[in-house]
Specification:
Elements: H1 2-7, E1 15-16, H2 31-37, E2 41-42, H3 62-66, H4 68-74, H5 79-96, H6 100-109, H7 122-133, H8 138-145, H9 155-160, H10 167-176
Helix pairs in contact: 5-6, 5-8, 6-7
Enzyme class: oxidoreductase
GO molecular function: oxidoreductase activity
Protein name: Oxidoreductase
């Protein structure tokens, strides 16, 4: 895409805003390598997985009651495989006397170029400040990452998977010619 932009004298892309957090790491499959090879920054949205990484497992929060897409579609299908990660976030937060949100954001800051936080309350900014000041140990990073299990793709990538315009299918058909 940047080749096209450069060829036509348009500004080039410098960043990708992707869906990435401790309980949804599917972009590690291909996107991270692509971004690195093409000098593109990563600025993921949903760093706290719609609040799942900010509260102990099973806590009912307003967001989950109001955001039916997040609750049922985006994260609702993977509750069982996500729980060990959420429990580990809680354990590390308790050990350091910081918020769970700070732990999840501290992990994320080691993986991407910038954090995007949808702060709607002042204490959300407090968690961001905690995360900036806090660094996880290598063992803690490992403890957070080890329980991860692959997820089905979500959002636009899942929608495009079986369509004719899918990039992978396009490349396969081009190779046949």
């Amino acid at each position: 895409m940047n080749d096209y932009m450069k060829e036509h004298n348009y500004p080039q892309f410098v960043s990708i805003q992707d869906h990435y957090n401790l309980i949804y790491r599917e972009d590690e499959r291909e996107l991270f390598t692509f971004a690195h090879e093409n000098n593109l920054g990563l600025t993921p949205y949903s760093p706290l997985a719609s609040g799942r990484l900010a509260h102990p497992f099973g806590t009912q929060i307003t967001r989950r009651k109001q955001d039916l897409f997040s609750e049922k579609d985006k994260y609702g299908k993977t509750v069982d495989i996500d729980r060990p990660i959420i429990d580990e976030v809680e354990k590390i937060a308790q050990n350091h006397n910081i918020s769970m949100a700070a732990v999840a954001l501290a992990w994320l800051k080691t993986k991407v170029n910038a954090l995007i936080v949808g702060a709607t309350k002042v204490h959300h900014l407090d968690a961001l400040e905690e995360a900036i000041k806090f660094n996880l140990s290598k063992d803690e990073v490992q403890a957070l990452e080890d329980p991860y299990r692959a997820h089905d793709l979500e959002g636009v990538m899942a929608d495009n998977r079986d369509r004719e315009h899918n990039w992978t299918q396009y490349l396969a058909k081009s190779a046949e010619k």
